[in-house]
Amino acid sequence: MTTARTIRLTTFGAPEVMQLIDVDLPAPGPGQAQVRHTAIGFNFIDIYQRAGKYPRPLPMGLGHEAAGVVTALGEGVQGLAVGDHVVTMNAGLGAYADARNVAADKLVPTPAGISDEAAAATFFKAMTAQYLVQKTHAIQPGEAVLVHAAAGGVGQILSAWARALGATVVGTAGSPAKCAVAVQAGCHVAIDYTQPDWVAQVQAALGPAKARVVYDSVGAHTIDGSLDCAAPFGLVVVYGAASGPAPAIDPELLNKKGCLFLTRPSVFPHNADVATLRANAAE
Fold first, then answer.
1. Residue numbers of the domain that contains 110
2. 155, 154, 197, 151: which is closest to 175 by C-alpha?
3. Does 149 share its domain with 109?
4. Which residues contact 272 (CB under 8 A, 6 or more apart)?
5. In terms of Cα–Cα distance, which of 189, 18, 137 is closest to 5?
6. Which is nearest to 110 in space by CA: 132, 141, 82, 88?
7. Measured between alpha carbons, how far is 282 from 267 in angstroms, rounded to an integer?
8. Beta-strand pair 32-41/99-103
């Protein structure tokens, strides 16, 4: 038995509700690995859960993404060894800790040459981009796509990946400086969505065919424009709500906008078993 420092919530709210406490950390049980965290990742879902937008029973831990070193293995664990560097993003809440026990099948070995800091900063975001461009919609060469928040962590990876797959990528961001970051990341052009005519600018950049798929992580501020920028029979993917939740949408509106498809996916169901998780991570 050892101890670990961890963040614990007993109420929802602003960052001040986070409490740093010491907890007992037993030896890992069957199928578990004990990991000493050397870096943790911060993601929007952490903010949503801390604030109570995605409420969980209290008290609860916080954080999904962390990287570190395996320090002990429980019975039956295969494919990992003490001393291995690993990263995780779907082992359940509690990544805001200096050590914890997690299901070994939620761990992905960190490739040689990638630091723990880089792994923790990018893994969740890259896995999100992976399912968006390969699972939610398999991007094809020549397609036009619209990426909102293209200067963000997911947005930059998503834009670069979509362009590498041969798409024409139009991005949006919240300032001219962020638009420059989006272009550097991979967008062919980026539009400042704080401008009142941003929808018209995006439509002009896309051309009359509009976007085969729209990736929207902004939500309330952009969802109406997303529907207006999607091609007939196009797909609007709402995978976040940085500006607040998107309002309820009447299905008849999707018909009027061009028989559109609308989905709200998540990274976790796309990585539900160890084989799929590690295959997606390898990609």
1. 2-114
2. 151
3. no
4. none
5. 18
6. 88
7. 15
8. antiparallel
pLDDT score of 103 more than 90: yes
Q: What is the pLDDT of residues 13-63, one digit of tens each?
A: 999 999 999 999 999 999 999 999 999 999 989 999 999 988 899 999 999
Structure tokens that stand for 211 in this block: 């976007």
Task: From 283, 282, 269, 280, select the one nearest 110 (Cα to Cα).
Answer: 282
Same domain as 211, residue 138: yes
Whether 283 is in a domain gets the answer: no
What's phi and psi for 131, nearest 5 deg?
Answer: -70, -30
Give dist(CA 55, CA 39) in Å, integer: 25
- pLDDT recorded at residue 54: 86
Token code pair at residue 7: 């963040």
Q: How far apart are CA 47 and CA 73, in angstroms?
A: 31
CA 73-74-75 angle, to 5 degrees, is: 125
* Angstrom distance (rounded) from CA 225 to CA 216: 10
